[in-house]
Automatic annotation (TrEMBL):
Domain Oxidoreductase molybdopterin-binding: 39-185
Residue stretches in coiled coil: none
Pfam families: Oxidored_molyb
Domain of life of the native organism: Bacteria
Organism of this sequence: Brevibacillus borstelensis AK1
SUPFAM superfamilies: Oxidoreductase molybdopterin-binding domain
InterPro entries: OxRdtase_Mopterin-bd_dom (IPR000572), OxRdtase_Mopterin-bd_sf (IPR036374)
Endpoints of the signal sequence: none
Name the UniProt record assigns to this protein: Oxidoreductase molybdopterin-binding domain-containing protein
Length: 220
């Protein structure tokens, strides 16, 4: 049986019918908050931390942490869906909406695609239209507290309508590109777009990641 067939055959526990519409196909609801990433958790000095906006923009900018905290802030509640099959409802993040960020930083995009860069070389590609929405946030806080180191402090992207691998933790760069080049997981067999309601999980066959991978991870 190939990977896709195995996933289709897995039993998914029943959910409250009132909430079922919010749970994408093949997902399991959890109330815990799993921690998933490749590599080490970066250590920062906020005095030297920067976020760089570059590539196909009218003018590149590099921002300090305080400049981002001084931008208009929003609190958003969203559902998150990880491709390893866990979903978590009603997550309250605080930060700067991507739209407000572009405006406040004076960024004028000249291309339709974006590569997000996290520390230690993690990347995720997105269409600009997937970021230019009211529910996309550059988040610094979760549930009224600063993000924990492992959940991406001091700044992570939150793109709730796509699988959570697109929500880059330890965000350091926003690169505007003419082509939709694949990011880290997209180069490793995951879908270029990643809509959970369409089950856009994989771009091909056999992946080395079991579907219950997240059960073995750390939580907080
Ligand atoms: N920089 C970075 N961001 C990342 C990852 C990563 O490995 N590095 N993993 C992604 C994946 S696959 C998921 S599911 C979410 C997990 O976020 P969490 O640990 O806060 O649950 O972060 C995403 N962002
Ligand atoms: Mo993930």
């Amino acid at each position: 049986m190939n990977k896709a067939d195995r996933i289709k055959r897995m039993k998914v526990p029943a959910v409250d019918p009132a909430l079922a519409k919010r749970l994408p196909p093949g997902q399991v609801l959890t109330e815990r908050f799993p921690i998933l990433h490749e590599g080490e958790v970066p250590v920062y000095d906020l005095q030297t931390w920067t976020l760089r906006v570059f590539g196909e923009v009218e003018r590149e900018v590099t921002l300090g942490y305080e400049e981002i905290r001084a931008m208009p802030q929003s609190v958003l509640t969203c559902d998150i869906h990880c491709v390893t099959r866990w979903s978590r409802f009603d997550n309250r993040f605080e930060g700067v909406r991507f739209r407000d960020f572009l405006k406040a930083a004076g960024i004028v995009p000249k291309s339709d695609y974006v590569m997000l860069h996290g520390d230690h070389g993690y990347t995720a590609n997105l269409a600009l239209s997937d970021l230019d929405r009211d529910d996309v946030l550059l988040a610094h806080s979760f549930d009224g507290e600063p993000l924990t180191d492992k959940h991406g402090w001091p700044l992570r992207m939150i793109v709730p309508h796509l699988y959570f691998w697109k929500s880059v933790k330890w965000l350091r760069g926003i690169e505007f590109t003419n082509e939709n080049k694949p990011g880290f997981w997209e180069q490793n067999g995951f879908h270029l777009n990643g809509d959970p309601f369409r089950e856009e999980r994989f771009s091909g066959e056999a992946l080395p990641i079991p579907e219950d991978e997240w059960e073995k991870k750390e939580f907080d």
